[in-house]
Design brief:
It is a single chain. By secondary structure, the protein is an alpha/beta fold. It has nine helices and eight strands. An eight-stranded parallel beta sheet has the order 7-6-5-4-3-2-1-8. The longest helix has 19 residues. It binds pyridoxal-5'-phosphate. The site of pyridoxal-5'-phosphate has 13 residues, from strand 8 and helix 9. Pyridoxal-5'-phosphate binds next to strand 8 and helix 9.
Length: 223
C-alpha cells in the first residue's frame, strides 16, 4: 500500500461528500453507512481500504465473496460483508454463513430459504427487501404492490428486516424513485434504506439513504 493509494483518496472524498450532504439535509452523517462495492476487484485493491479503517464492503456473487472474504475478515476484525446481488435460493445457506447483511431479498421462496438457513446456523444477517421501484421487467426486486405481503411474510418468519433496497432505472433522474422507496418504508414501519450508487449517492443521502453502495467511484471502472 502506498500512503496515497487512489482508492483511499477516493474514500476520503466520498466520505466528505456524504458528510456534507447529510449536513445540508439535517441528517447525522453517522447514520449513513458507506458500503464499498468490491465486486470483481482483487484483494490487492481492497486491502488499502481495510488498512485505512474501512469495514463495510459489498459483493454481488456468493462464490466470489467466499473466495475473497474469509481471509480478509480474519485479518481485519469487525469487517462487515454485504451481499448486494440477486441471490438464488439454493445459495441461501452459503449467504447466511458468510454475510452480515443481505440486500436483495425479493421473493417468498428466498425469504423461506433464508429463514431456514438462519434457524439452522444461528447466524442472523440483516435483511433488506428489494423493491423493483421503476417496475422494470428485467430488474430484480418485488413489485411495489407485492411488498406488503413479502414484508408480512418476512416478519412472520422472523427474518431480521433492516430495511428496503432499490436500484432505480438507469438514465432517469433517481430522486423520485428514492423518494418513493422512502415513502413505502415509512408507510410500513421500516427504517433502513439501501439506495444510492456512484452516480447518485448524494441524491440518495438527501432523501434518507442509510446505506449507499459505491463501487466505481471508489475503485475505478470495472472491466
Ligand atoms: C455494482 C453494484 C453497485 C455499485 O455500483 P457503482 O455504480 O459501481 O457504484 C451498487 N449496487 C448494486 C446492487 C450493484 O450491483
Amino acid at each position: 500500500m502506498t500512503p496515497n493509494d487512489p482508492s483511499t483518496d477516493q474514500l476520503d472524498a466520498i466520505r466528505a461528500r456524504i458528510a456534507h450532504t447529510a449536513k445540508i439535509a439535517r441528517r447525522n452523517p453517522g447514520d449513513v453507512t458507506l458500503i464499498a462495492v468490491s465486486k470483481t476487484k482483487p484483494e490487492g485493491a481492497i486491502r488499502p481500504l481495510l488498512a485505512a479503517g474501512h469495514r463495510d464492503f459489498g459483493e454481488n456473487r456468493v462464490q466470489e465473496a467466499q473466495a475473497k472474504w474469509p481471509a480478509l475478515q480474519e485479518a481485519y476484525p469487525g469487517t462487515r460483508l454485504h451481499l448486494i446481488g440477486q441471490l438464488q435460493s439454493n445459495k441461501a445457506a452459503d449467504a447466511v454463513a458468510l454475510a452480515d447483511a443481505i440486500h436483495a431479498v425479493d421473493r417468498p421462496s428466498l425469504v423461506t430459504a433464508l429463514a431456514r438457513a438462519m434457524d439452522a446456523s444461528g447466524r442472523r444477517p440483516d435483511c433488506f427487501l428489494q423493491v423493483n421501484i421503476g417496475e422494470e421487467p428485467q430488474k430484480g426486486g418485488c413489485a411495489i404492490a407485492d411488498l406488503p405481503t413479502l414484508l408480512d411474510q418476512a416478519r412472520k418468519e422472523d427474518l431480521p428486516v433492516a430495511g428496503l433496497m432499490c436500484i432505480p432505472p438507469a438514465d432517469l433522474e433517481a430522486a423520485p424513485y428514492f423518494a418513493l422507496l422512502a415513502k413505502i418504508a415509512r408507510d410500513h414501519g421500516v427504517t433502513g434504506l439501501s439506495m444510492g450508487m456512484s452516480d447518485d449517492f448524494e441524491t440518495a443521502v438527501m432523501l434518507g439513504a442509510t446505506h449507499v453502495r459505491i463501487g466505481s467511484a471508489l475503485f475505478g471502472a470495472r472491466a
